[in-house]
Fold this protein.
Amino acid sequence: MDKTFWIPLLVSFGTIILLYLLGYVADVDVLIFRMSLSETEISLVPIAGGLLAGFITERMIKSKAT
């Protein structure tokens, strides 16, 4: 596996972690993952942001390679 796979994957996970961490620190409800015995709330905004960052990174790497 080459860098066109690993770098976007790491950027995606890093962005997801950073956005969830920002949600906890700044107490932003849209960016928080909450778990309790009765319910679980998962915000999809950090996941979508991470996927978008990964796709953009992959396109940038491929465009620079050609």
Notes: The beta strands are 34-35, 40-41. The chain has two helices and two strands. The helical segments are 3-26, 45-65.
